[in-house]
Amino acid sequence: MEANDHGTGARIGMWLFLLSEILIFGGLFLLYSVYRFRNPADFHAASRELSRVFGTLNTGILLTSSLTMVLSIFSLHRKGERRRAAAFLCATILLGCAFLVVKGFEWAEKFRHGLYPNSALLLERPKGEVLYFGLYFTMTGLHALHVIVGIGVLSTMLAFLRGGRIGPERIAPFENAGLYWHLVDIVWIFLFPLFYLIS
Fold it and tell me: What CA–CA distance (Å, rounded) separates 19 from 21?
C-alpha cells in the first residue's frame, strides 16, 4: 500500500512539474504569436530560410521515439520483459541523440550563413527577421536542452532497469521518465509548424 501511495505521489509531482514546463513554453508560444502578428511579412521572409527537410526529419525521429518509449513501458508493465523494455529504451535514447545531431547540422548551417543572434549580417535585416531568428534559437535551443536532459533521465532509467531497480512492481519512475519524454515530443509538435510550416 505504501509503495502504491509513493507511486501515486510521484505521478502527481511529475504532472505538476510538467505543468510548469508547459507554462514556460506556453509563454514563449504567446510571445511568438504577438511578434508574428506585428511582423507578418518579416516572419514570412525569415521562415523561408529554414529547412523543411531538417524539420520534417526531426519530427519523424521524435514521433518514432515516442512510440519506442511507449513500447518500452508496455513491455515492462504488461509483460515484465526487462530485456525487450531495455531494447526499446535504448532505441528511444538513440533517436533522441539522432534528433540532436540533425539539429546540430541545422544550426551549423544557420551559423555559416550568419543567421544567428547578434550576428552582423542578421542585424542588417529588418527587425521582424531579427526577432524571428531570436525566437527560433531561443525556443529550439530550450527544447534541445530538454532533449539532452531527457536523454540523461532515460539513460538513468536504463541503468536502473538493467540493475533491477526498476520493474513491473516499481514502475512509477520509469513511467514518469516516459511522461517527460512525451512532453519533449509534444513541444516539438508545436515548434515544427510554427517555424517550418506556417509562412
Answer: 5
pTM comes to 0.90
Distance between CA atoms of residues 157 and 73, nearest Å: 11
Terminal Cα distance for the chain, rounded: 54
Q: What is the pLDDT of residues 104-152, one digit of tens each?
A: 999 999 999 999 898 999 999 999 999 999 999 999 999 999 999 999 9
pLDDT at 170: 82
CATH number at residue 180: 1.20.120.80
Q: Which amino acid is at 26?
A: G
User: What is the DSSP code (8-state) at residue 118?
Assistant: T
Question: How many helices and strands in the chain, by DSSP H and E?
Answer: 7, 0
The residue segments making up the domain with residue 36 are 2-197
Number of domains in the chain: 1
Distances (CA, A) of 119 to 1, 20, 89, 110: 59, 32, 40, 11
